């Protein structure tokens, strides 16, 4: 049995859920609050970061990209044409570069600011750093988001999917990242038709259904968040 | 032919050089200054980060961990017992977790502060942010280093090598990280005998020779830096 420690609005956690769904690997989900210090969890992952996967109470598989590699190594072959890691070493390198770009750089540049300011600050108590969003930070996050949307558009225009002709982990990583921002209604879709077209394709995949059903108590999703035709 | 864009004191770059040497893959080295904006280099790696590897002028392989995976996929089989990525998915996950820990978390927590304050600030011009080291930053870097040394000691005491019974990329990652700090004479070896014993073993490998011969003009290495018996 698979067990995933995650947070609903954490981008690497969402990516791991998408990877599990694409691999047809059901997992029991345990939700964690990223800012809460949990000694038992630190024994699993000393870095204290999400997500963490365990299989049959075995050793922890820590980190979104490490989980993606693990699922490819243990389930990839059985997926045949739907495998999300390409065969050729150069294409694998490009997939890994983009996974890293969307799950680390794009999260640091933009998604994490939105999440912290618009979601975590509302869920946290005053002693944990809760409060109102900082409009200067949100302005910077929006400006950085435009840059990242342009890069996704650049890739989507030149390739069928972001890392090449077939869908890969790179698309799930970018999709996870944008889906969190889209929950908050912060993606200017009308300005980026190429990105919108690519996102519509990825959003229509069955793996996205549970993500689109995500709902935070007291912080509802933007109106179009669930619509496949937005 | 392999070509590596690197910086001598950059931890992920050193790790890539160690991986290349262990794979018996000679590469032409091109040194880059991480703070210089180079438009041609940004076309290779839009993230602008080091290291980047190219084989036969093919597509760029960007990032230390992506390079390690690429070398394993293209040369690993031929290395037999000396292969640096284990076979079992759980051991691979642990190797990747630790690669990430030493190349990202430990670099951010400690190595990068030493490099920036004690090396880059001396190499940069005044308009690039050059100047004297900040003693508060160095104090924080030393305190974080002790925590990381304790963790390496904890792993080395329980396992033969850091990720398990055999040497893996995790050892090269930790070795690359400590070697840069050791160049500056900042590792308190006498306080960590278990770490010292582990480092002596990794430092004695032939792959380390070029790293130990590294020398920056005007910023000499600590006296014991090259000694295998320090």
Automatic annotation (TrEMBL), chains A, B:
Ranges where the GST N-terminal domain occurs: 1-79
Superkingdom classification of source: Bacteria
Listed GO MF terms: glutathione transferase activity
Keywords of the record: Transferase
Pfam families: GST_C (PF00043), GST_N_2 (PF13409)
GO biological process, one term: glutathione metabolic process
InterPro entries: Glutathione-S-Trfase_C-like, Glutathione-S-Trfase_C_sf, Glutathione_S-Trfase, Glutathione_S-Trfase_N, GST_C, Thioredoxin-like_sf
Gene3D superfamilies assigned to the protein according to its UniProt record, in alphabetical order: 1.20.1050.10, Glutaredoxin
Domain GST C-terminal: 88-230
Subunit structure: Homodimer.
Protein name per UniProt: Glutathione S-transferase
């Amino acid at each position: 049995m698979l067990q995933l420690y995650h947070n609903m609005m954490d981008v690497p956690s969402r990516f791991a859920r998408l990877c599990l769904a694409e691999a047809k690997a059901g997992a029991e989900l345990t939700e964690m609050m990223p800012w809460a210090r949990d000694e038992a969890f630190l024994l699993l992952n000393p870095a204290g970061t999400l997500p963490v996967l365990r299989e049959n109470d075995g050793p922890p598989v820590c980190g979104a990209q490490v989980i993606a590699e693990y699922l490819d190594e243990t389930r990839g072959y059985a997926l045949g044409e739907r495998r999300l890691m390409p065969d050729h070493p150069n294409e694998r390198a490009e997939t890994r570069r983009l996974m890293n770009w969307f799950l680390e750089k794009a999260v640091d540049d933009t998604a994490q600011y939105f999440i912290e300011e618009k979601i975590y600050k509302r869920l946290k108590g005053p002693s944990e750093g809760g409060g109102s969003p900082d409009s200067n930070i949100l302005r910077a996050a929006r400006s950085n988001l435009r840059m990242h949307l342009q890069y996704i558009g650049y890739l989507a225009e030149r390739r069928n999917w972001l890392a090449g002709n077939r869908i890969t982990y790179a698309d799930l990583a970018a999709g996870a990242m944008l889906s969190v921002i889209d929950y908050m209604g912060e993606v200017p879709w009308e300005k980026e038709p190429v990105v919108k077209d690519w996102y519509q394709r990825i959003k229509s995949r069955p793996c996205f259904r549970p993500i689109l059903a995500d709902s935070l108590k007291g912080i509802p999703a933007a109106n179009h968040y669930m619509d496949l035709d937005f």
